[in-house]
Amino acid sequence: MASQTTAKTHTMRALVELRKRIIDGDIPGGTRLFEVALAEDLQISRTPVREAMSRLAEEGLLERARSGGFLVRSFAYADVIDTIELRGVLEGTAARLAAERGVPEAKLKEIGAIVQKLDLCIGETPDDVDFAAYSELNSDFHEALAALPGSATLERELDRAKRLPFASPSAFLPDNTQLSKFRRSLHAAQDQHREIVTAIHRREGARAEALAREHAQAARRNLEYIFSKDRSLLSSVPGLALVSSDGPDGA
Amino acid sequence: MASQTTAKTHTMRALVELRKRIIDGDIPGGTRLFEVALAEDLQISRTPVREAMSRLAEEGLLERARSGGFLVRSFAYADVIDTIELRGVLEGTAARLAAERGVPEAKLKEIGAIVQKLDLCIGETPDDVDFAAYSELNSDFHEALAALPGSATLERELDRAKRLPFASPSAFLPDNTQLSKFRRSLHAAQDQHREIVTAIHRREGARAEALAREHAQAARRNLEYIFSKDRSLLSSVPGLALVSSDGPDGA
DNA sequence: ATCTGCCAAAATGTATGCATGAGCGCCAGC
DNA sequence: GCTGGCGCTCATGCATACATTTTGGCAGAT
Question: Which pTM was predicted?
Answer without folding.
Answer: 0.88
